[in-house]
Amino acid sequence: MKLYVMVIDDNRLVANSIVKMLTLLGHEAQAAYGSMAALQAIAQHTPDMVLTDIHMQGLNGVELCRYLRYDSNLVNLPIVAMSTDNQPAMIASAREAGADGFLPKPIEIEALEKVIQQIETALANGEKK
Hints:
Elements: E1 4-8, H1 12-24, E2 28-32, H2 35-44, E3 49-53, H3 61-70, E4 79-83, H4 88-97, E5 101-104, H5 109-124
Parallel strand pairs: 1-2, 1-3, 3-4, 4-5
């Protein structure tokens, strides 16, 4: 299943490298360089999945998760948080805000592929979106 994935990170290099990984895995991906750019892009074309950094300027990734979960059209949108901060409290905070998964940075393509497969299974079973 080919997914359309929105990659949200205020670090352009990181966002672009994750987009390239997703493309190599056979998916369509778009980078948004921060939460506000992501919200505008999502309003124009809802992705099948969101990968969001946690630590961003302005609206951070945890706040973005909460915001997306409050939108009735996006409540089931799969969201995976990512961060170099992989402390249990940070991961719990992201999950409480609505993230379905977590990827530690730097992102490894094998871990990304595994998360994508989990999301694809959930989508195929009607559990998301």
